[in-house]
């Protein structure tokens, strides 16, 4: 396939009105290679786009050249001379069309000098691009640009790299707010820092309450997109009948109540990052559109026929096992592999024991800061014993559960220092249902039932002692034993010792 990419120039429109040729029609008609597809970019005069498409289609049909795939697309640029926004649009289209076509021809005549300059700079990086110009006499010139921009840039960049190598490495300030004294968290942040510097889609995995949104924000702030928008959406909180509109937008009249055009989150995050929390909750039909947006960099608003190009980095997160959902047919395999390029496993609080004292201090500071707004509130501290007690607990809800528990403890306690009893009294006991594991045996099977039950008892006794801080009286209550002497006898029988 042979494709022509061009900006829509003022002269092209003016000549169209008098049925005369300008750069686009001249190149389309006189190029030695007929074009199967013509992509025209513009940011103004939208009311004339359809007329120009018909004008060009008619000219191509008369010349017996392909004319079915000619379309003007909206270019989201700040102004005709804004290098940053034009660069983004040009890069999107040149990369997309170069991948699709055998040859990509770029018109250098139509558009502003900024558009031409960036088309050359970006187009020279593709092996199958060629550049065309038209003269005032409607002649076509095949432009040879001998300069190797990549080589010239590499020479300049190498000097900068050499100079920087002798200086101190810069700190990843975006990750400063993530507490990382534990080895598990240090590993996660090290991976995230590398991912932040790239443009790859990222999947953050971890239990509920482990701080996946904080990590996503740090990755965005540590990336080249930090100055652009970060949009956040909880996919699990979206009603299925509106998720399409929220993500991809809708046109006026697309459904009852759609009284105006609405840009979706992909458009709102253009140039920046879109964080899809609980991505495993997305319906399969929406997963198809999400995959298309990732693969082609374009979305279609609900009720519209034209696609909109977007440049969005996706960070997704879930507490679910996506590979299991794929096996069950509830999550698309191709989407899973598209998202799971940069993978970060957020450690549970139970894996971050070294971080807990610092996290507790930070949360306590936040609670006191919020409470200071109320005249009757008295600022409180948390005792070392309370922090040690917190470190012994499992916290299945992770930081979110710890935050709620501390809020209750600070609220209920009348003392200026919150102790371990205040924490224990503020913890919520959630009864977890026990799975019914049906056991089947054959006539020739042999098991050591005593050893099996001893192993189970030992695990529960150790867990109870850990949760109680090795206080036998508390551990006895947790296990439902009648007295602590019974627990002592069990410990002897099971060969359990404590400090």
From TrEMBL:
Signal peptide: none
Taxonomy, superkingdom: Bacteria
Classification via PROSITE patterns: SIGMA54_INTERACT_2 (PS00676), SIGMA54_INTERACT_4 (PS50045)
InterPro entries reported for this sequence: AAA+_ATPase, AAA_lid_NorR, P-loop_NTPase, Sigma_54_int, Sigma_54_int_dom_ATP-bd_2
Sigma-54 factor interaction domain ranges (all copies): 178-411
Pfam families: AAA_lid_14, Sigma54_activat
Record-given protein name: Sigma-54 factor interaction domain-containing protein
Annotated keywords: ATP-binding, Nucleotide-binding
UniProt key word ATP-binding: yes
């Amino acid at each position: 396939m042979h494709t022509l990419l061009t900006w829509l120039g003022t002269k092209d429109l003016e000549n169209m009105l008098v049925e005369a040729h300008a750069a686009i029609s001249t190149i389309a008609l006189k190029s030695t290679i007929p074009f199967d597809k013509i992509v025209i970019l513009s940011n103004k005069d939208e009311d004339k786009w359809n007329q120009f498409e018909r004008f060009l289609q008619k000219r191509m049909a008369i010349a017996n050249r392909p004319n079915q795939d000619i379309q003007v697309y909206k270019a989201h640029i700040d102004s005709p001379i804004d290098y940053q926004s034009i660069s983004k649009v040009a890069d999107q289209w040149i990369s997309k069309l170069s991948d699709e076509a055998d040859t990509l021809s770029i018109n250098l005549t139509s558009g502003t000098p900024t558009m031409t300059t960036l088309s050359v700079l970006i187009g020279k990086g593709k092996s199958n691009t060629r550049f065309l110009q038209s003269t005032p006499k409607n002649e076509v010139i095949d432009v040879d640009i001998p300069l190797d921009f990549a080589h010239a840039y590499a020479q300049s960049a190498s000097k900068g790299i050499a100079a920087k190598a002798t200086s101190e490495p810069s700190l990843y300030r975006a990750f400063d707010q993530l507490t990382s004294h534990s080895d598990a968290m240090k590993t996660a942040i090290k991976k995230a820092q590398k991912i932040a510097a790239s443009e790859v889609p990222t999947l953050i995995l971890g239990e509920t309450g482990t701080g996946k949104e904080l990590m996503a924000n740090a990755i965005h702030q540590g990336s080249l997109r930090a100055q652009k928008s970060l949009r956040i959406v909880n996919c699990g909180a979206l009603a299925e009948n509106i998720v399409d509109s929220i993500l991809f937008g809708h046109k006026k009249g697309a459904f009852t109540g759609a009284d105006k055009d609405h840009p979706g989150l992909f458009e709102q995050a253009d140039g920046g990052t879109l964080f899809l929390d609980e991505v495993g909750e997305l319906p399969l039909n929406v997963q198809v559109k999400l995959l298309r947006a990732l693969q082609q960099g374009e979305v279609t608003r609900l009720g519209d026929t034209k696609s909109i190009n977007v440049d969005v980095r996706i960070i997704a997160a879930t507490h679910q096992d996506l590979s299991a959902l794929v096996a069950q047919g509830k999550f698309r395999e191709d989407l899973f592999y598209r998202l799971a390029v940069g993978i970060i496993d957020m450690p549970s609080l139970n894996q971050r024991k070294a971080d807990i004292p610092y996290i507790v201090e930070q949360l306590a500071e936040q609670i006191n800061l919020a409470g200071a707004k109320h005249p009757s509130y008295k600022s409180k501290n948390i005792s070392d014993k309370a922090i040690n007690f917190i470190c012994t607990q499992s916290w299945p809800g992770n930081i979110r559960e710890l935050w709620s528990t501390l809020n209750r403890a600070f609220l209920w306690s009348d003392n200026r220092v919150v102790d371990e009893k205040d924490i224990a009294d503020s913890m919520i006991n959630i009864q977890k249902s026990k799975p019914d594991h049906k056991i089947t045996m054959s006539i020739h099977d042999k098991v050591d039932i005593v050893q099996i039950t001893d192993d189970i008892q030992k695990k529960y006794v150790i867990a109870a002692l850990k949760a109680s801080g090795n206080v036998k009286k508390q551990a006895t209550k947790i296990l439902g034993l009648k007295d602590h002497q019974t627990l002592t006898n069990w410990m002897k029988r099971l060969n359990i010792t404590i400090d």
